[in-house]
Amino acid sequence: MKHNKVGSVMTTEVVRATYGTPFKEVARLLGEHHISGLPVVDDDDKVVGVVSETDLMAHQAEAPDPYESKKRFRFAGLTRSGKRRAAKATARTAGRLMTEPPVTVHAEDTIVEAARTMAQHRVERLPVLDEENRLVGIVTRRDVLQVFLRSDADIHDEVVEEVLVRALWQGPRSIDVSVVQGVVTLAGQMERKSEKEIALSMTRQIDGVVAVVDKLAYRRDDSHIQPEEQTYHGITEDWVRHL
After folding, report:
1. Minimal CA–CA distance to 84: which of 92, 75, 71?
2. Is a pLDDT exceeding 60 seen at residue 241?
């Protein structure tokens, strides 16, 4: 089963900054290109951090008010996060302003993995790296949402062809497959419990699947069989547990 990769939807022309890019130049780049953030790279195109609109706003919010006491902005006594905010208040370059370490993905990661990373870290865009961890692109929330724009018919066909026929060697009509708004329902009876688990696991990983409804039964419970004894058309039980 082949997932869409981040490299297939990323933007390859990346607006970027270096450690020494001035604050105003960063602001200009964000505004001119209508983007919410950009990666900061070193001389080897390795991503060392990310500067976002939030970082720029933090700079302005934490900047000292000339009419207030200077004592408020001394570093002594500040917490670690407070010191970071104070440092950003005086930042003049992207390197001092950026958030680090950067949250990134690789071009060979699946779009679903990128979506999970975005949700976990609450970011809208991710720098994309190659196998040598060099910057090769940017992927945004809009890019990853493309995976959920697949039609129900496309999802149905992939479940039948990739899961039932190719992986499990079942007839295309052996199991009833219905898809409504990305929700896949599998109904019918399979020979073994482990085949049911394979069908459910593989279906959940198909691009565009929102959820899987299990209405599958099985004739034989083979869960007691040792992993080394369990093989189905070249698919081992150990492989199933890693789905």
Report:
1. 75
2. no
Cβ atoms within 10 Å of 58's Cβ, excluding its own:
18
The Cα 139–Cα 110 span in angstroms is 12
In 77-228, at which residue ranges do the beta strands (DSSP E only) sit?
105-106, 125-129, 135-140, 176-180, 183-192, 211-220
Burial 85-107 (b: 16+ CB within 10 A, else e): ebebbebebbbbbbbeebbbbbb
Quickly count: other Cβ atoms within 10 Å of residue 220's Cβ. 11
At 12 the three-state DSSP class reads coil
Nearest to 97 by CA among 23, 38, 32: 23
Cα separations (Å) of 220 from 71, 162, 173, 189, 225? 75, 23, 20, 10, 11
Give the other-Cβ count within 10 Å of 27's Cβ.
15
pLDDT in tens, 95-139: 999 999 999 999 999 888 898 899 899 999 999 999 999 999 999
Q: Average per-residue pLDDT in the chain?
A: 84
186 compared with 92, residue with greater pLDDT: 186
Cα(5)–Cα(140) distance, rounded to whole angstroms? Answer: 13
Q: Are 205 and 3 in contact (CB under 8 A)?
A: yes
